[in-house]
Hints:
Blueprint: E1 2-6, H1 14-25, E2 31-37, H2 40-51, E3 55-63, E4 66-72
Helix pairs in contact: 1-2
Amino acid sequence: MSHILDITKEHCPMTFVKTKLELAKLKEGEILEVLLSEGEPLNNVPKSAIEQGFEVLSIEHVEGTTHKVTIKK
Length: 73
């Protein structure tokens, strides 16, 4: 089951804080799809997720400045 978190209106450092809080709610192996803006959030969220031991499955452009990062707990 996938969970979706929309942080397109958030700014760093809150982007990864909210992502990490959402990941904490998931069971091992569950997937979180994070919608975020390009720039700092797109650079920092995947990098921070990997540093915290999560697996980044994909990074995709959605539309405009919005991207989707898929993270496995």
